[in-house]
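Morning, I've got a small favour to ask if you have a moment. I've dropped the whole record in just underneath, so have a look.
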Amino acid sequence: MERKKDDADGSRVQQLEERVKNLEQMEEKMDSLKRKVDEVLLERKKKADEPRVGKLEERVKNLEVMESGFKMDCLKSKLEDVSLEKKKSDDADGSRVQQLEESVENLETMVSDLKAKLDEEKAKSSSDEFLLVNAQIINVRCSSSVWSNLDSNPEKQSRALFMASKAE
């Protein structure tokens, strides 16, 4: 009986070992099937996501284009501002140059007027010198009492000489 029991136990152990072996093989097959299912799901997800990914990539490109367009608009605006400031500066410089030219013209006119006055003064001085020389000649002729009454003022002397020359 023991032998039967041993044979029955041995057969049972063998059955259990075969069952464990079968379960291990099934587990390997299940793991393999699970990997295949995961791969198929991943492929399906990739295919399903392709249009979405494409749309997202397109939106990103559009946003980048808009951003670069915005940057271009900002740069254009800054360029216009700088150009306007430069034009104002050039206009101000032009006005300043015009003011300076007018000032130079005014100064030239003043110098010309002063030269004319100087020439008049020189001519008057020259004529006064002539009158003084003439007065010295007349002085010799005039009585010393008339001449001595005149003070040293050249204007009075000139008038006296003029009067004396008319009297002659």
Summary: DSSP finds three helices and no strands in the chain. The CA atoms of residues 31 and 37 lie 10 Å apart. The helical segments are 2-141, 144-149, 154-167.
